[in-house]
């Protein structure tokens, strides 16, 4: 490295890497990706210009959504390519060290954390599940459930239905939250781990649907079909709730890399 370049970190693994798994990959600056070893760990990195990826430049560039999207895609492409061959701990975007010596020091300082994370994610992949609620349909479904099976032609039945409709309108957010909780709990049964995040900002997602669940799940690779079948069943079980699945992804949500700083 020189005073004008730094080292961008993509991921850490304890698996052996064939040369073509790194040399063929192109990184965030179009650089050839390479490996830095320390102990039983390997960091996959790339040499990048500090004019674009130094601290001051990053503070400026991260505000540029087009630049951020382009760099994030390149970063994920490297990580996803590695994850097809070995277990990886993805590093958070913009983890930049001054040189290879600092990369090796980071591997030593966080050896226990990296090793524990690699044990957790081995043979597993991350999946995302989002639940969107349609307020009108959900209100009607809750009202129908609450009104019971009374004779539809009787005055009593009408009053019961009307009362249920008013109650459902008042409590629709509570009912949506209850359904989201049940969906999350059910998905945890077919996952090794699961996390719930804040709903995605509509400005970033491009969708104005009402998101009631933003979940990520670490799923054993040999239970993928079971997990996806459970999502499909849940999607048909709850009126007014639409489920959207994404993945498979490298295990970004379960590696703990957000706590690692160069």
UniProtKB/TrEMBL annotation:
Q: Name one Pfam family in it.
A: GvpL_GvpF
InterPro entries xref list:
GvpL/GvpF
The UniProt record lists the keyword ATP-binding: no
According to its UniProt entry, the protein's GO biological process terms are: gas vesicle organization
Q: Where in the cell is it found?
A: Gas vesicle
Q: Report the transmembrane regions from the record.
A: none
Question: What keywords would UniProt list here?
Answer: Gas vesicle
Instruction: Give the main localization category.
Output: other
Q: Name one GO cellular component term.
A: gas vesicle
Q: Can you tell me which family this protein belongs to? A: Belongs to the gas vesicle GvpF/GvpL family.
Q: What is this protein called?
A: Gas vesicle synthesis protein
Native source organism of the sequence:
Rhodococcus gordoniae
């Amino acid at each position: 490295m020189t005073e004008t370049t730094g080292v961008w970190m993509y991921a850490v693994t304890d698996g052996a890497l064939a040369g073509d798994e790194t040399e063929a990959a192109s990184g965030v600056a179009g650089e050839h990706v390479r490996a830095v070893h320390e102990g039983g760990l390997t960091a996959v990195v790339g040499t990048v210009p500090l004019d674009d990826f130094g601290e001051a430049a990053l503070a400026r560039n991260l505000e540029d959504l087009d630049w951020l999207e382009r760099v994030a895609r390149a970063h994920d492409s490297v990580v996803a390519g590695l994850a097809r061959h070995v277990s990886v701990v993805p590093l958070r975007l913009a983890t930049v060290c001054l040189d290879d010596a600092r990369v090796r020091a980071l591997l030593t300082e966080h050896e226990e954390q990296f090793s524990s994370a690699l044990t957790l994610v081995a043979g597993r992949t991350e999946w995302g599940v989002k639940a969107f609620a349609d307020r009108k349909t959900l209100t009607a479904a809750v009202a129908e459930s609450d009104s019971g099976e009374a004779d539809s032609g009787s005055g009593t039945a009408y009053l019961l239905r009307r009362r249920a409709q008013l109650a459902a309108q008042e409590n629709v957010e509570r009912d949506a939250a209850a359904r989201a909780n049940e969906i999350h709990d059910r998905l945890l049964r077919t996952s090794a781990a699961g996390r719930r995040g804040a709903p995605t900002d509509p400005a970033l997602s491009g969708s104005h649907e009402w998101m009631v669940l933003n979940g990520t799940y670490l799923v054993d690779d040999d239970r993928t079909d079971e997990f996806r079948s459970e999502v499909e069943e849940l999607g048909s079980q709850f009126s007014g709730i639409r489920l959207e699945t994404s993945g498979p992804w490298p295990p970004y949500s379960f590696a703990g890399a957000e706590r690692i700083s160069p």
